């Protein structure tokens, strides 16, 4: 049977900028319905578990019946020999109850764990498919909390909660029917208290769900703070802010504690009321039943058995008052899970998207307008072209829109206006996988995984051979320093490559790009944070990487782009100059100003013929 999935198009699905639909009051049943779709593929385990639960419910009838028979028949008739069989029957029933309880618990736990595995895997896959804007809007710690803590809450619902509800429901119906057959008057007295308990459960249930949702949200706050601070521990220590962060963490922990205490207070108010109503029914049955027994309308054995059955009838209600705690926790967690699974990405493959093949690498921006999250426009009526097989560079001050161009080229975002195309094909008309598969990015913000050097190099090509890995490392000028480590390519690099220097990280990222062998390379401030020696090694590696490929270079250091075929100067989302290095210097515009700021001595040494800058300085001197 095919595995069911949470459909992003299900009720509650939304797009960015639209709040998630608030779950209806029947969301508990909606939750159970969806959980059933996730566990139905394990129907054999479910069937076996339900059989065990029904067996438990039926066996619980046996002991009260044995008690009644003993009091009404064996004791008056003094059947001493039958007592052995009564004892054997009670012990046998107890053994069978233990066996079926064990089997039902194990089977439902197995179903629950499998359901959690399915949901967590599906949730992770779904999050991976969401676009960058989703991650801009959501904190990492909160997402981690939803994938771990919230999904674990659902596991409790499937294993213990579902088992308890099914067993208790069957027991309640069976015992109530039997009690009505024995004495309908006494049974009605008990059942009259149930509408009050149902109304009370509904009243407290809504408040418990809201309280537990607050608990889950505060857990996410704690997780987010932990993730932020632990990943920034060097920054915290460099500013000696350990005490400050400890105080901030204490505030979030305190909020979580208060939310938990509020949930406990609501639960603690609910359970005594249910117990009071149960004891009220017990007192009524005891009084009326005693009167019937004294009047000769009932035997002592019957009233004893009836009291035992009453206990069986009340146990499901008492257990449900405890289980409602788990149910409402799961309902709160379910709402947070559906909020993620119902989110639909804006950047997706079109239904008729084609594979991008035979890439040359000509990229065109036509009349592009773009703003982040509905903010101020970064690009307006933007026209731009990267020629195939050439090196194109973009320079400009921070905030000019340089990185935005790379984000649009890789379809991390789609423009609100205009089009971006590659080799004449609109990016929205090709598949994301084929588009990004033909691109390689080497950024200033190097992302390395917590693994070995080899695992990081082969990340873009998992099936690469050892020879290919070594070749890529040599081309990136990384092989020598890699072999200096005791374990060579199998050396662990720590979280985010903490065991490597900046230049080593950069060369590993270049080796990763070389191994991927993309047709289009994006260098985003690739050498801006390196020392001169490291930059020289990396420039040599980049020269190999760029050979025969289309390349877009974004740089603050103008020394890295002097050999570019074309340089664009960007200012406030608009191209204000373009040309080669020399032609831009002769224009005496923004580019020449930036160059003069970075190389004042070189400008003077090169003289007016090279830089055409001496007259400008002499004019300022007058």
UniProtKB/TrEMBL annotation:
Q: Where in the cell is it found?
A: Cell membrane
Q: Which residues form the ABC transmembrane type-1 domain?
A: 47-329
Database matches in Pfam families: ABC_membrane, ABC_tran
GO function terms (MF aspect): ABC-type oligopeptide transporter activity; ATP binding; ATP hydrolysis activity
Keywords attached to this Swiss-Prot or TrEMBL record, sorted alphabetically, are: ATP-binding, Cell membrane, Membrane, Nucleotide-binding, Transmembrane, Transmembrane helix, Transport
Report the leader peptide range. none
Transmembrane segments in this chain: where? 43-63, 83-104, 162-181, 187-205, 273-292
Q: Provide GO CC annotations from the record.
A: plasma membrane
Record flagged with keyword Membrane? yes
Presence of the UniProt keyword Coiled coil in the record: no
> Where do the segments described as Disordered lie?
1-22, 600-622
Which SMART domains does the record associate with it?
Answer: AAA (SM00382)
- All copies of the ABC transporter domain together span 363-597
Q: How does it sit in the membrane?
A: Multi-pass membrane protein
PANTHER family annotated for this entry?
Answer: ATP-BINDING CASSETTE SUB-FAMILY B MEMBER 10, MITOCHONDRIAL (PTHR43394:SF1), ATP-DEPENDENT PERMEASE MDL1, MITOCHONDRIAL (PTHR43394)
UniProt name for this protein: ABC transporter ATP-binding protein
Q: Which organism is it from?
A: Paenibacillus arenilitoris
Q: What is the taxonomic lineage of the source species?
A: Bacteria, Bacillati, Bacillota, Bacilli, Bacillales
């Amino acid at each position: 049977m095919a595995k069911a999935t949470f459909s992003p198009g299900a009720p509650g699905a939304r797009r960015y900028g639209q709040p998630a639909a608030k779950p209806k009051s029947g969301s508990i049943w909606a939750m159970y319905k969806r959980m059933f779709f996730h566990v139905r593929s394990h129907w054999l385990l479910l069937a076996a578990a339900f059989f065990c639960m029904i067996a438990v419910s039926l066996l619980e009838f046996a002991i009260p019946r044995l008690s009644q028979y003993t009091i009404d028949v064996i004791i008056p008739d003094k059947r001493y020999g039958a007592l052995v069989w009564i004892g054997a029957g009670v012990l046998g029933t107890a053994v069978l109850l233990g066996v079926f309880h064990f089997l039902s618990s194990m089977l439902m736990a197995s179903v629950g764990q499998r359901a959690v595995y399915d949901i967590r895997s599906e949730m992770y896959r779904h999050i991976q498919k969401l676009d960058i804007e989703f991650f801009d809007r959501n904190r990492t710690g909160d997402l981690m909390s939803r994938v771990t803590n919230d999904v674990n809450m659902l596991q409790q619902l499937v294993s213990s909660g579902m088992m308890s509800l099914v067993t208790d429901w069957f027991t309640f119906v069976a015992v109530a029917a039997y009690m009505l057959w024995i004495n309908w008057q006494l049974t009605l007295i008990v059942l009259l208290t149930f509408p009050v308990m149902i109304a009370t459960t509904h009243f407290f249930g809504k408040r418990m769900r809201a309280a537990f949702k607050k608990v889950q949200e505060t857990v996410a706050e704690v997780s987010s703070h932990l993730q932020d601070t632990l990943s920034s521990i060097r920054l915290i220590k460099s500013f000696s802010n350990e005490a400050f962060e400890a105080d901030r963490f204490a505030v979030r922990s305190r909020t979580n504690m208060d939310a938990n205490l509020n949930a406990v207070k609501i639960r603690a108010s609910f359970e005594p009321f249910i117990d009071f109503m149960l004891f009220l029914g017990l007192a009524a049955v005891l009084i009326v039943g005693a009167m019937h027994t004294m009047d000769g309308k009932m035997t002592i054995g019957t009233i004893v058995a009836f009291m035992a059955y009453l206990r069986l009838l009340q146990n499901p209600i008492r257990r449900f008052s405890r289980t409602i705690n788990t149910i409402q926790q799961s309902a709160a967690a379910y709402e947070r899970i559906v909020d993620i699974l119902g989110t639909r990405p804006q950047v997706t493959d079109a239904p008729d998207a084609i594979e991008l093949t035979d890439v040359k690498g000509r990229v065109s921006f036509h009349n592009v307008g773009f703003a982040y999250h509905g903010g101020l426009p970064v690009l307006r009526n933007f026209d731009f072209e990267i020629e195939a097989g050439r090196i194109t560079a973009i320079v400009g001050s921070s905030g000019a829109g340089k990185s935005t161009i790379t984000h649009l080229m890789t379809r991390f975002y789609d423009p609100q206006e205009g089009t971006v195309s590659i080799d004449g094909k609109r990016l929205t008309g090709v598949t994301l996988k084929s588009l990004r598969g033909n691109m390689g990015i080497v950024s200033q913000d190097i992302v390395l995984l917590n693994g070995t050097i080899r695992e990081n190099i082969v990340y873009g090509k998992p099936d690469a051979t050892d020879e290919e890995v070594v070749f890529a490392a040599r081309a990136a000028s990384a092989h020598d320093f890699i072999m200096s480590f005791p374990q060579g390519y199998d050396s662990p690099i720590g979280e985010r490559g903490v065991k490597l220097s900046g230049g080593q990280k950069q060369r590993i990222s270049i080796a990763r790009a070389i191994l991927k062998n993309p047709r289009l390379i994006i260098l985003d401030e690739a050498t801006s944070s390196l020392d001169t020696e490291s930059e020289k090694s990396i420039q040599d590696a980049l020269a190999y990487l760029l050979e025969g490929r289309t390349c877009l270079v974004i740089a603050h250091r103008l020394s890295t782009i002097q050999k570019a075929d074309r340089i664009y100067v960007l200012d406030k989302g608009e191209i204000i100059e373009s040309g080669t290095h020399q032609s831009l210097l002769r224009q005496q515009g923004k580019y020449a100003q930036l160059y003069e700021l970075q190389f004042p001595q070189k400008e003077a040494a090169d003289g007016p013929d090279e830089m055409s800058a001496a007259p400008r300085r002499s004019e300022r001197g007058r």
